[in-house]
Structures are given as C-alpha cells and as structure tokens.
UniProtKB/TrEMBL annotation:
Domain Phosphotyrosine protein phosphatase I intervals: 1-144
Listed name of the protein: Low molecular weight phosphatase family protein
SUPFAM superfamilies in the record: Phosphotyrosine protein phosphatases I
Lineage: Bacteria, Bacillati, Bacillota, Bacilli, Bacillales
Any single Pfam family the record assigns to this protein: LMWPc
SMART domains xrefs: LMWPc
Amino acid sequence: MKVLFLCTDNYTRSIIAEFICKDYFRMNHISDVQVASAGIRANSDINKYSDLHFKVMNDMNIDTSEFKRTQFDYEAFLKYDFIIGMSELHKEFVKNEYNKDIYLFNELYKEQNTAINIGAPDREDFEDKMRELIQYFIDAIPEVMSNLKHIHPLGITPSMNREKED
C-alpha cells in the first residue's frame, strides 16, 4: 500500500503525518506500506513558517532527515493508492483540479469532515499547540492505517462503488 499525505505547502501537517507514520512503521516492523507527503503549493516561500515541528519530532527521536518538499500533481494518482488531505481546502483543490475525490485525515481517524489546524506561530501557546498536534498524529496514525485496510484505494469504498453502479 502506498499513501500520500497532502497539505498546502508540504511543510507542516503532511510532513508531520509522513514522519510520524514512518516512525510508527519502523517501531512496529511494518514494511509493506510506503508513505510520502506533498503540497498543493509546495513551491511557496516557507521563510515565514515555523520549523518548530522538526525540533519537537527530533527531540522525540523521530527522524526527519529525509525531509523534502514535493509539489502535488496528477502523477500522485498513478503512484499512490490513497491520498489523504488535511483540510477541505485540499479535498476541494483535488476535486476542482483533477475531478478526483480524496479522504480527509479526520474522516479516516474519527469519521469527521474536519480539518487539522496548525495554529498561529505568533501565539504565546504555539509550542504547546505544536506538541499537541504532533501527539494527535501519533495517536491517530495506528487507527488511520488500520482503517485504510478496510477501504478501496483512491477513496472508493465498497458502498460508494455500489452507489455509482446503481
């Protein structure tokens, strides 16, 4: 199985999901799943963004040394079985640009159509919020990966498939 996490700039949310997932696979000796990340505008200027998430993950012994930003494009549909967006913006972008449906992370985790939010780096509690976000992914990844095993690739569940046939 091949999974792509998608966010806006491919710098925070999708990167955290990717490296938390890789760490989870390493610790649980899972080798039959590959994960990566991309952004709908991964060519954006990231100088204004915080890199605190890298420090926090590295302090937790989560290796992020393979970090590389990747621009999302049509090739992702050919390479990956599942594309998982972090917010409605990503889901809408994929639908509008490629006429494809993807899952939201929280759909797979909590069966909710809700976004994963980062928080503003200029807030006083940003470091706490970033740690909470990373812990959220740590808690979610086992369930998200388990739930992926029960659906068909590229966002077509068995029930969705039947609806299209009717």
